[in-house]
Amino acid sequence: MTVLDLRALSTAVFGSGANARTELTSWDAAIRGGLSTTRRVGVVSLSPGAGTSTVAHQLVRAVAARRSEPVLAVDVSTGTPGLAARLGAEPVPPDDTRAAARTTAEALSGLDVRDGVVALRPRDADDAVGAWLGEAAPIARFFDVSVTDFGARHPLADLAGCAALCDVVCLVADGRRSPAEHARSVVDAITGLPESPSVVLALVDHAREGDGVARAFAAGAEYPVVAVPFDSGLAAGGRARRSATQLAVVRLAAAVVAAGSAGRGSAGRGGTGRGGAAGGSAGHSAASASAASAAPGRTA
């Protein structure tokens, strides 16, 4: 993977300011830094077309380019093309060795490592929570960082169940005020789940109207809000053509990696931290309970 030239990128975006280069360097360091527990990142939106798979793909690339160990990229989305397709990975059937993995080698059974990424697309992903618990949970603990593309999820259906599986939820929305406000309205429900995932709000400027809404939302917010410029180069798994987009991706990647440090400790959803075993049916029940308790309009 190609690592961005931070000095050249910061100069292109910010000019020659030393403070700007320092900020960009700090984001890069946050992505590269050591993690006390596995970091499970879930990328999700409230409506199709928000850019969930594109954001997930860019996060995977940014993190994989900066860490020495492979990143696990899980695709349980319903969109096309999803994260796996953008990574050139085909759906895989269940694997008994992966399901009972006790070593990294067993966790990689039937999967390929390409450019620092291990892609997993379960063959049956109709039930996103069940697919994640059955296929990703047994192996996620063998990776420092995993990124899951959950696609679009409804707040009254399966949003909370998916969020409960994550240390960090990257909530993707169109950068215009109305869809951005819709996304912001569910943040408290997500962070209020028993599993206490952190949230990073990524607002994609599909309308090319600038980052005004993102900057307004960020003022006083207790969670990171990152504006992602529209970039035609990102279509169907391409690369950013604008330096501003590259910068936004680095910032977003740093935010999601760092945000998990503020969440819960080593206990995992669908598993425990580095050393724990995955808890299949129990984890599924817990995620379902979280979904029921956190849905808007229901009593927790």
Describe what you observe in this structure.
With 300 residues, the chain is of the alpha/beta class. The chain has a single domain, classed as Rossmann fold (3-Layer(aba) Sandwich). It is built from 13 helices and eight strands. It has an eight-stranded mixed β-sheet with strand order 3-4-2-5-1-6-7-8, with helices on both faces. Helix 11 (212-218) links the parallel strand 7 and strand 8.
SSE layout:
Layout: H1 6-14, H2 18-32, E1 39-45, H3 52-64, E2 71-75, H4 83-86, H5 96-99, H6 104-107, E3 113-114, E4 117-120, H7 128-140, E5 145-152, H8 159-163, E6 168-174, H9 177-184, H10 187-191, E7 198-205, H11 212-218, E8 225-229, H12 243-259, H13 280-294
Parallel strand pairs: 1-5, 1-6, 2-4, 2-5, 6-7, 7-8
Antiparallel strand pairs: 3-4
Helix pairs in contact: 1-2, 1-12, 2-12, 3-12, 7-13
Number of separate strands: 8
> How far apart are the first and last residues' alpha carbons, in Å?
44 Å
Proportion of β residues? Answer: 15-25%
Mean pLDDT: 85
The H-and-E topology, N to C, reads as: HHEHEHHHEEHEHEHHEHEHH
- How many domains comprise the coordinates? 1
The CATH superfamily bears the name: P-loop containing nucleotide triphosphate hydrolases
CATH topology: Rossmann fold
Number of helical segments with 4 or more residues: 13
The proportion of residues forming helix, as a percent range, comes to 25-40%
CATH class: Alpha Beta
Brief overview:
With 300 residues, the chain is an alpha/beta fold. The protein has a single domain (6-294), classed as 3-Layer(aba) Sandwich (Rossmann fold). It is 40% helix and 15% strand.
